[in-house]
Amino acid sequence: PVTIKKLLVALVLVVVDPSINFHVAKSSAVETYDPAKLVTEILKGLCSSEQVCETCLFKDEITSTLLSPISHFLDVADHQTPSESTLLHVADILCMIASSTKGRRHLIYGEKKDVFTRTKSSAAHIIAEFTKKALLKDLPKEAGQAPSQAVIGSYLYICHQLYNTCEGLLVLYPYELHASVAKAYQQASQEAESVPTPTPIEDDDSSSDSSSLAAKESYDLLHWEDTLRDNLLNFASTAKGILLLQQTGALNECIVYMNARYEKKLQVSKCEKFGYGYMVTQLAATAPGMAALEKTGYLKALISELWAVLECGPSDAPLFTPKSWPVDPVERISHKHLIRLLNVLSAFPAVYEVLATRPLPTKDSYTFREMPDTIAGFLDRLVLLNSPAKVHSLFNVEQSHAFGLRVLSVMISCLDTHLLLQAQYKFQECLLSDQADNLHHTDSNEIIVDCLSVERNNILVRSYQLGGPSERTLPPRIIKNMENPYPYPMFTSYPIPKEYISNQGRSAMKQDNELIKFLDSKKPEKGKAWLEKCRTILVKLLQTKPEQVKGKVVQKLLEQAAAVMTTITEEAIFPLLQFSGNDSSVKKFNLSPLQSLGIKIAVRYGIHLKVIHTSSEATEKLGHLLKKCALFLQQQQKPVDSKLLYLQGSYPGFDWFASTIFIIFSGNNEKSWEFLHEFSTLGASGYLWMPRLHASVHLPTALMSSGIPPLFSSTGHNIELILQIELPLVASAFRMSGYTPTQICLHWLKQCFWNYLDWFDICHYVCVCLIMGIDYQVYLCVAILKHLQKQVMEHMQTQDLIIFLKEEPIHEFHVSKNLKYMQELEKKYRKIILPDLLNITKP
Q1: Per-residue pLDDT at 720
Q2: What pLDDT does residue 475 have?
Q3: Would you say the C-alpha torsion 262, 267, 272, 275 has a positive or negative sign?
Q4: Fewest beta carbons within 10 Å, which of 86, 254, 323, 689?
């Protein structure tokens, strides 16, 4: 009996077998009824249904038959060289298979679809090897004539469909396709420059023939150059891909190309439904990506479009119907522009790149048609309205200022951005002054409640008091009860009213448990044996009595773990260097205004938690600790030859991890320093402690000078890898929202979950990542996104996912309750993820 599999193999043979010669004579009729073309269309039709494909088409025997023409080029035998049309038909079918998730996985893993036992003989490996050799003109001569650019482009596009996902890049990474495509692109660019521009010559047939041939050659070269540039650009779909693209040196050219397509509203490719929004957001999470976006004019165009919607366009366009009267603070028509702007201003490295050292372009007067064309100009005109000239220059003052305040509110949810904006532009003083101007009477303390004063009040509270879900009260933006419309007090000076500060009680319960006994034991095990036992006890205690893992227990645990782990070679991947400075060099060291502000905020949070008692002494001690850490890390940095502001000098952000350790050790800067000094040798330090690997000599030169931290290219990439496999709905919701999981996870991790989790859970996060392994940082972020799945889906529908994730704390999430799920992820993924995180020192 003929099975479906046998039938499909027979059909595929019609396409791929060169011995079946249907082309008796070349004629248009024969080509119209070409059986290979007909079968290709049938198979492509089958590919439109994932279920049908999974049952019938995704079989290793069928796939290997389909791949036989390109296998011929890799394993030369006595086969007839496949024709160009055969190779293009095969590419067409493979392209349709790769356009669906199940099809892509079939090409990557084969019929068994086992993610964890990858075979080198799967279709993806054969396609990647063929494409790489064809690009580098490295195919064996015995295989016959080399494939044309059209064929190579078709197979490169299939690779692009694979490597623009984290799973695909994981498998294709060893082939270094980014380097091969970049090399081919440079050659094509050089050839395109040397081809003379064809000019029409009249009355000479031979000349006109050669002219049209030159024109075709020139067009083919330009088309080939665009094909290569497009495939290079698509590495920017993943976090690790952006690093690879940056290392090719072609990032700027690719973003110029993307911007040109973006302006024409072209989709990314023939098989992808969405535009470039997701890719722009991924790029804007990095300093080099943002610098390139600014250079190509993307930001200027974004602000220009935004201004046209909020205020007025660059020219008068007669309106035949009046604009609708706004009923929301941010109208639906401007909401899309709000999200686009927030997507590119989400990450601190990007904001630093476009705002650091740039003053506001304030003027004494503005014309009505004058538009801002930079981010600083946007903040000057719509956020910090501190002069009558700015107010009078706007047509829709209230709507435009409300829009600006919403942007500011989301931007300052990133604490580093908050400190930068306050240090450079004093936004808090400006908003307090605006609140004072909004008083009912000059002699009363009542502030008029309106859209702007409510928004300002929210920002002023949010930017003064730090805390997790149960540690502070944020005033709402919406008035629900008309009898008592706004029961929250407004104010015109700091500190904030006590109504916004929730009382943090300190429990003085006696801590006596198995973990304390283990840490206090007189004859402890050594090295790995100690660590294994510690893991077992910590997991048991977190799952049964998590409230006992706090205070002195956490201090002892961190101290002993750091001391033991420095003796384990797999954990201690960096050398332990002695601090070469002294007290006078520490005192002379200058912290930036941003870092000085950060110290005040951190100490205020410590006092609020009742862990630190005196403000002035704690401020001095934390300042001393941060200066000592900065000097110590400076010993391990080298100057980078880069135009990026982010890489000039020491780490530009605030050291949230060192501040977390300072509060864990109750403001004891000696103990904090001893821990951080030992901790600096561990691989985990590169991911938990952001300044640790900034411009560090321990990184390969290409990675160090890229401006892309390992937290982005490794942790962020691996979070997206697991999401695509474990939580595909969440991964899709992010893609459809044009926002990336990497961006929000880096935001949480860089500031050690301050403002997102309660202090109790922040301590558990540090303990778990140190004791259980740094890959738990990845599993924790996946567990949080799993916890938030319902809200992520809802906010994808309402198109405000970025606002929800950045402004809202993570309610009802506890590290201890999700430890079991994290352990399940560890069993599945550790052998892929942990080596990737710890191999950062290798080129």
Answers
A1: 97
A2: 92
A3: positive
A4: 323
Q: Angle at CA 684, nearest 5°, toward 679 and 689?
A: 70
Query: Angle at which helices 551-565 and 656-664 pack, to 10 degrees?
Result: 120
CB 175 within 8 A of CB 127: no
Q: What is the pLDDT of residues 425-454, one digit of tens each?
A: 999 999 999 999 888 777 777 888 888 999
Fold that domain 710-838 belongs to in CATH: Cyclin A; domain 1 (1.10.472)
Nearest-10 crossing angle of helices 615-634, 593-608: 130
Q: What is the DSSP string of 380-414?
A: IIII---SHHHHHT-SSHHHHHHHHHHHHHHHTTS
CA distance 661 to 763: 9
Residue 392 CB coordination number (10 Å)? 11
Instruction: Tell me how far apart the alpha carbons of residues 795 and 816 are, in angstroms, rounded to a whole number.
Output: 27
Backbone phi, then psi, for 696, in 5-degree steps? Answer: -85, 140
Dump strand ranges (E) for 532-575: none
> How many angstroms separate the CA atoms of 21 and 79, rounded?
14
Per-10-residue mean pLDDT for the chain, 843 residues long?
86 80 52 79 86 84 90 74 88 92 90 66 90 91 85 95 93 94 93 69 58 72 91 94 95 91 72 74 95 93 91 64 60 86 96 95 86 94 92 89 95 98 96 90 79 93 94 87 83 91 69 86 85 95 92 94 94 92 91 97 95 91 96 92 92 97 96 97 97 94 93 97 96 94 97 97 97 97 98 95 96 96 97 94 71
Return the HEC string of 739-797. CCHHHHHHHHHHCCCCCCCCHHHHHHHHHHHHHCCCCHHHHHHHHHHHHCHHHHHHHHH
Do 278 and 296 contact (CB within 8 A), yes or no?
no
Cβ within 8 Å of residue 478, ≥6 positions away: none
pLDDT digits 0-9 by tens, 750-759: 999 999 999 9
pLDDT, position 275? 66
Q: In this structure, what token pair is assigned to residue 113?
A: 């679809």
One-letter amino acid for residue 59 of the chain? K
The C-alpha torsion from 371 through 377 and 378 to 384, rounded to 10°, is: -120
Q: How far apart are the C-alpha atoms of 86 and 64, rounded to whole Å?
A: 15
**Which residue type occupies 594?**
L
Contact indicator for 603, 660 with CB cutoff of 8 Å: no
Is the previous residue joined to 495 through a cis bond, with omega within 30 degrees of 0?
yes
Neighbours of 799 (CB within 10 A): 16
Select from 289, 210, 213 the least CA-distant residue to 251. 289
Q: How many whole angstroms separate alpha carbon 65 and alpha carbon 57? A: 12
Q: H helices then E strands: how many in the chain?
A: 44, 0
pLDDT score at 273: 55
Say which residues have a Cβ less than 8 Å from residue 689's Cβ, sequence separation at least 6. Answer: 655, 657, 658, 676, 679, 680
For the chain, which residues make up each domain, given as ranges?
A: 1-175, 180-197+210-273, 289-314+328-500, 514-565, 583-704, 710-838
Residue type (1 letter), 838: L
The verdict on pTM exceeding 0.90 is: yes
Mark residue 509 as left, alpha or beta (left: phi above 0; alpha: psi -120 to 50; beta: remaining): beta
Non-local (6+) Cβ contacts of 355 within 8 A are: 375, 376, 420, 421, 424
Q: pLDDT tens digit string along 474-501?
A: 998 887 777 788 889 999 999 999 989 8
Contact 790, 738 (CB under 8 A): no
- Of 63, 138, 135, 148, the C-alpha closest to 97 is 63
CA-wise closest residue to 783 among 816, 754, 832, 734: 816
Burial of 529 (0-12, 13-18, 19+ CB in 10 A): exposed
